[in-house]
Amino acid sequence: MKRREPKHQESPPFDSELVTERPKSRRPRAAHRSPANIALVAAGGAIGTGLRYGLMLLMPPVAGVPVAILTVNLVGAFLLGLLLEALSEFGPDHGWSRRLRLGIGTGVISGFTTYSTLAADSVTLALASPVIAVAYGVGTVIIGGLASVAGIATARHLVRPRIARSAS
């Protein structure tokens, strides 16, 4: 700590007159502040968004139902469950595991899926048929949850035996 020069030399400094310096630490940056991690998420997001857009061009709506958005959200839920469970089987979230989670999970898969379009499409569908809109919105969320659970189960089935074999 550095001391400020007291106004009166004869009195000792008060605590408020002490100036503290921030210690220089070599702590690593938080993952969300690392430029490399930010770049991974941004690049992955651009790729995922491009993939979604391409699928939307290939799969037009059927009877007003946006099957492309339904598909990306369900496939994305499955893939996210698969990825996160597989990575958790390999240990703590750092190094290559963190880079894969950020680049593919937060980047590609999050860019690929879209909750905002699901919500907007549900409103559009509600104008024509409230029943179809509710079935689409609620069905996507419920089936998406099941797809995520299926992804987790698939990862456990594929990854755990490999880890056990490599450990023996």
TrEMBL record:
Topology in the lipid bilayer: Multi-pass membrane protein
Region Disordered: start-end pairs: 1-32
Keywords: Cell membrane, Ion channel, Ion transport, Membrane, Transmembrane, Transmembrane helix, Transport
GO molecular function terms noted in the UniProt entry: fluoride channel activity
Pfam families tied to this protein: CRCB
Subcellular location: Cell membrane
Record GO cellular component, one term: plasma membrane
Transmembrane parts of this sequence: 36-55, 67-88, 100-120, 132-155
InterPro entries (alphabetical): FluC
Major location (coarse): membrane
Coiled-coil ranges from the UniProt annotation: none
GO process terms (BP): cellular detoxification of fluoride
Reactions the enzyme catalyzes: fluoride(in) = fluoride(out)
Superkingdom, taxonomy of origin: Bacteria
Family: Belongs to the fluoride channel Fluc/FEX (TC 1.A.43) family.
Role of this protein: Fluoride-specific ion channel. Important for reducing fluoride concentration in the cell, thus reducing its toxicity.
Name of the protein described by the UniProt record: Fluoride-specific ion channel FluC
Organism listed in the record: Microlunatus phosphovorus (strain ATCC 700054 / DSM 10555 / JCM 9379 / NBRC 101784 / NCIMB 13414 / VKM Ac-1990 / NM-1)
High-level lineage: Bacteria, Bacillati, Actinomycetota, Actinomycetes, Propionibacteriales
